[in-house]
């Protein structure tokens, strides 16, 4: 019978709690929906970036040449008009250009302070094209004497002038409208990717839920859609439904078989026991035969418990009440000393019947194999301790224990340790039933040798 430490009141060692596999290690991962969405989003971003680079390559050069040609044409026309007009007409022309075309012409002084135009790659390309079209003496500036605008410096018959244009003539490549359309397209693309990912993930999610229901023994859930459009999903759904039907039939056959075993074996056993008590005159022989028949009945119960369907109903369960109800019949047994120290307020999420079966099996295991080699008595210590998310229940006897190489096999069906098993009359299912019941309730079951002697069982359940 399991144990953890050598005293009742000492707490469970920290290394025991931390090393106990209370829950399997979970690897980091994402669901299929998010994985598909991320991949689609990455594809869209990559496509958008490629499109942007292509657009830049195809747009910059034609745009720069076109813009420079328009500005150069305006400068040449203005220069020609000024050259071939008299002084009065020239003043009128300059005024008309300023009012109607938003083009202002001012003399260029040697003391003028200006900043060259060219903040972006497009600006630099336009500047180079203007110098190429208007001549090497052309100056393109973004501000002159602190006044912002598109300034083009040129000469007319040896005189230098500034031509100031509205900078809006050079529309930026990325404006507010571009950004709005780009954001809208990106949002719509992500929404489409989410819808596509959801459509891909929906059949697999339904299959996952159906698999969980079948694993829990729920065969009455609606079957998966066998008429879906996707061929591969339809074939998987049909195969899963047929598998679930076969498992349901196997479960029904097992239930009927267990009911038949219970009836067909216990009825002749009861009759045989009655005939033995009435017909055997020797009291000792009669007592031995009745004990053998009772032992056969107990073994049948163990088989039925182990083959019981995996149906549990988790609820708030008082650990102290379950342990006390299970320990009560064992306290009256000769040579049994059970000491319980469990807070009455301690509760877990468990199936009360299943938890009681686990405690009873462990106490029965201690009664059979946990006798002290020195005193011949069976002493069992039961304690419980709560952590942030789990409750750890420990049952420890002071018997001879088992060899370390046998610990891993004690929870296997029909396996028993070789040491101190001279009174072994069971089927070797008690600990296997305990581990199976703990797994059904979402807990863990661990056996270890205690010091200086005995075995210890550590039960771990989610805290309520």
UniProtKB/TrEMBL annotation:
Its main location: membrane. Residues 198-252 form the HAMP domain. It is a multi-pass membrane protein. GO terms for molecular function: ATP binding; phosphorelay sensor kinase activity. SMART domains: HAMP, HATPase_c, HisKA. Signal peptide: none annotated. This is histidine kinase. PROSITE patterns: HAMP (PS50885), HIS_KIN (PS50109). It comes from Comamonas serinivorans. It is found in: Cell inner membrane. Its EC number is 2.7.13.3. It catalyses: ATP + protein L-histidine = ADP + protein N-phospho-L-histidine.
């Amino acid at each position: 019978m399991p144990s953890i430490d050598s005293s009742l009141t000492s707490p469970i060692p920290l290394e025991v709690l931390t090393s106990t596999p209370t829950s399997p290690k979970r690897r980091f991962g994402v669901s299929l929906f998010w994985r598909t969405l991320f991949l689609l989003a990455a594809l869209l971003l990559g496509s958008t970036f490629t499109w942007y680079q292509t657009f830049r390559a195809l747009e910059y050069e034609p745009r720069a040449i076109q813009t420079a040609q328009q500005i150069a044409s305006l400068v040449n026309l203005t220069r020609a008009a000024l050259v071939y007009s008299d002084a009065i007409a020239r003043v009128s022309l300059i005024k008309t250009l300023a009012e109607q075309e938003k083009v202002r012409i001012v003399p260029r002084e040697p003391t003028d302070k200006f900043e060259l135009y060219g903040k972006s790659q497009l600006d630099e390309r336009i500047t180079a094209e203007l110098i190429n079209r208007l001549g090497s003496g052309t100056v393109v500036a973004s501000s002159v004497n602190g006044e912002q605008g598109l300034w083009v410096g040129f000469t007319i018959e040896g005189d230098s002038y500034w031509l100031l244009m509205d900078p809006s003539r050079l529309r930026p490549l990325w404006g507010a409208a571009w950004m709005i359309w780009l954001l809208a397209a990106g949002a719509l693309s992500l929404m489409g990717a989410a819808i596509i990912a959801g459509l891909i993930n929906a059949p697999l999610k339904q299959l996952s839920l159906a698999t969980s229901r079948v694993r829990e023994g729920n065969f009455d859930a609606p079957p998966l859609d066998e008429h879906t459009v996707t061929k591969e999903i339809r074939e998987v759904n049909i195969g899963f439904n047929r598998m679930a039907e076969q498992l349901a039939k196997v479960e029904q056959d097992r239930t009927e078989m267990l009911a038949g075993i219970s009836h067909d074996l216990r009825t002749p056993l009861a009759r045989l026991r009655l005939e033995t008590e009435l017909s055997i005159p020797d009291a000792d022989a009669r007592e031995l035969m009745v004990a053998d028949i009772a032992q056969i009945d107990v073994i049948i119960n163990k088989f039925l418990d182990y083959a019981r369907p995996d149906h549990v109903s988790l609820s708030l369960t008082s650990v102290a009440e379950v342990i006390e109800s299970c320990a009560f019949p064992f306290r009256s047994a000769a040579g049994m000393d059970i000491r319980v120290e469990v807070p009455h307020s301690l509760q877990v999420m468990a199936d009360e019947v299943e938890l009681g079966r686990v405690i009873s099996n462990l106490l029965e295991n201690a009664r059979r194999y946990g006798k002290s080699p020195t005193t011949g008595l069976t002493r069992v210590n039961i304690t419980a301790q709560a952590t942030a998310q789990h409750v750890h229940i420990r049952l420890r006897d002071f018997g001879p224990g088992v060899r370390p190489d046998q610990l891993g096999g004690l929870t296997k069906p029909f396996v028993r340790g070789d040491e101190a098993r001279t009174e072994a009359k069971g089927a070797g299912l008690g600990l296997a039933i305990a581990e199976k019941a703990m797994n059904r309730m979402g807990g863990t079951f661990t056996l270890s040798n205690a010091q200086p002697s005995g075995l210890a069982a550590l039960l771990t359940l989610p805290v309520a």
